[in-house]
Write a structure and sequence with these properties.
alpha+beta; 7% strand; globular; 4 domains; 382 residues; Beta Polymerase, domain 2
């Protein structure tokens, strides 16, 4: 692990009650601030690093480093206040209008952090029933002055007057047929049936976060923050062990869950390292929170030739296409039309550069590295 990564993990551990050792303090020199800032920014953890540095008086007054890190911490607090205000408005409105819904992701997980602002989010995620989607959009537009950005196959994106983004998930996607059996029944897996604002039971909350994490992981990588969320959830919630293991086994996520737990405990607790942890560490630290094109191509290629991989990307197999276009799950005959619609998406102005970058990676990618990434994915059974 590079020095800046080692320091970042130690500073995050401090935020969760672990003392900062003298060894780590000795590593925090003016030269480390730039790579430390860049790495933590890449994983959306700069605010935690900043808070730990400030609390330990490790930033010189008047320095550029102190200014930049302080801004990140202050912005995280400001973003939390904004999101919290908007979430309350949305939840109150939906309850008043008697719509059933489930808050997801950051809005739920942040309550398990030492301070809620420590878990940043770029938007608000709420699961609603498909039959309620259009009515909810109109209610939010008329009562809260939200504007509709777009309606995608999985969610509708709305914008608040304050600039906060809302994702109304009405058809959540899954990474496999096995996980879809749970993802498609989230409204049945709550602890307070009969109410309007529902809460997932502990085992499903764990599963939902893990499945979302696996989706990112198998699509090019996921950031350190996913592992921190996992660590926080594990420490804050008690589970029915037998029920949870049955759920993971039935959805094919047991190996992935075990590996994620080992990495999280190594980074933020007292867990030891091993080869698998080091391989995941290399993959994650280089990926950032949204993964990389290099990893996406590596995972997508598997054992295919360049031509074979390119063909599979142009003519996306039905088993993947149906998750991009949920209508296919009921009407598979529409597959050719959805395939053409997907091509137009790939050639749109917003996606064109991404498609070109993928072509370049196919032609010039490091095949040795691609094989290493694929071996990791296979070991995790994703």
């Amino acid at each position: 692990m590079q020095i800046e990564a080692k320091v970042m993990m130690a500073l995050i551990r401090y935020e969760f009650g672990k003392d900062l050792s003298q060894e780590i303090k000795n590593l925090i020199t003016p030269e480390i601030f730039k790579p430390l800032y860049e790495l933590s920014k890449k994983h959306d953890l700069t605010h935690l690093v900043a808070d730990a540095l400030i609390e330990n008086n490790l930033l010189k007054d008047g320095s550029v480093a102190k200014e930049r890190f302080s801004i990140e911490r202050d912005m995280a607090i400001y973003r939390y206040e904004q999101l919290s205000f908007e979430l309350d408005r949305i939840c109150d409105t939906l309850k008043e209008q008697k719509f059933t819904f489930i808050p997801l992701k950051g809005s739920v997980i942040r309550k398990f952090y030492p301070k809620p602002w420590m878990r940043t989010s770029c938007d608000i995620d709420i699961l609603v029933k498909p039959e309620d989607l259009n009515a909810i959009i109109e209610i939010l537009k008329s009562k809260l002055e939200y504007s509709l950005d777009c309606i995608a196959p999985y969610d509708a994106i709305l914008n608040a007057p304050s600039g906060v983004n809302l994702e109304l998930r009405y058809n959540p996607s899954a990474i496999s047929e096995k996980t879809a059996t749970v993802i498609n029944t989230l409204f049945d897996r709550v602890v307070n049936k009969g109410e309007y604002q529902l809460l997932l039971d502990n085992e499903t909350l764990y599963f939902y976060h893990l499945e979302h994490m696996a989706k990112h992981f198998s699509n090019g990588g996921c950031g350190v923050r996913f592992f921190l969320d996992f660590y926080v959830i594990n420490k804050a919630i008690s589970f029915d062990g037998e029920k949870l293991q049955k759920l993971l086994s039935e959805t094919g996520l047991s190996e992935f869950a075990s590996a994620v737990e080992k990495v999280a405990n190594h980074w933020f607790g007292d867990g030891e390292s091993d080869k698998l942890i080091k391989d995941i560490e290399d993959f994650v630290l280089g990926s950032g929170i949204f993964g990389t094109m290099q990893n996406r191509v590596a995972i997508g290629r598997k054992n295919k030739s360049k031509i074979g991989y390119l063909f599979s990307r142009v003519f996306l197999p039905y088993k993947y296409l149906k998750y991009q276009f949920p209508v296919l799950q009921k009407h598979p005959i529409l597959a050719p039309f959805c395939q053409v619609r997907r091509w137009f998406r790939l050639l749109s102005k917003s996606s064109r550069q991404k498609s070109l970058n993928e072509l370049k990676e196919i032609q010039n990618g490091d095949f040795e590295r691609q094989n290493k990434v694929n071996d990791l994915i296979k070991e995790l059974k994703l």
